Amino acid sequence: MPKTIILGAGQGRRLLSLTENMPKCLLPVSGKPIIERQIDTLLAAGIDEITVVTGFHSSLVETRLQQRYANHAPISTIFNPFFEVADNLASCWIARSVMDSDFLLLNGDTVFDAAVLAKMLNSDPAPITLGVDYKSTYDTDDMKVQLDEKGWVRHVSKTLSAAQTDAESIGLIFFRDRGPQLFRGAVENALRHQAALKFWYLSIIDGLADKQVVNACSVSGHVWCEIDFAADLARAEALFAETKGNGILQSPSIQAELITDE
Asked: What's the predicted TM-score (pTM) here?
């Protein structure tokens, strides 16, 4: 199984006042912190070597993980001291030593069900596999993706026009074979320039796409949510609401299917 790196250094300023004294990755979704939802899904799939990059109120995240996963020694943390002045490319640079074999890279604000993870893990082999989904329109905050006719990624950027946009990134990437080396090398080269401190790590994926090494994996129809705003948090609450009585997590659509079957 691949390793996983979770980028959880951010405060989440667009969710103030909820994140005034709490990192976004600790925000509860239907009673469980985002980071725990992610880790529990990974562990259930057999992925137990997990590294969390922390930053804002790092001690809160470290304490929570130590308490919740005391019996899972491979779950570790790396502190990003630049979280106040840099974007998430710097978090990747901090965690580059972990990128020595196949790994998943996960945004600290993306929650997803087991089916999303299974799709990624069983995707067609490629050095880099970008998880994507589709919708009718995309807004300025979406990380938009342009694909070629074979489904390989051409570009990843928030600034793509509507005509260029075919999908959006869900915040989950799978690096295999030479993918970890390609990504790590590109991250190290980028951070030699001070301007790159303000870059997203997906700018690296955009640059690597020219080499025809970035494939796309559609998770369309499966449950996931990126949490940036209060409306996203409310949507995640609805998607990951606990079924009363048995404690099993189901999305509303899955609950409806269960009720129909009965």
From this structure: 0.90
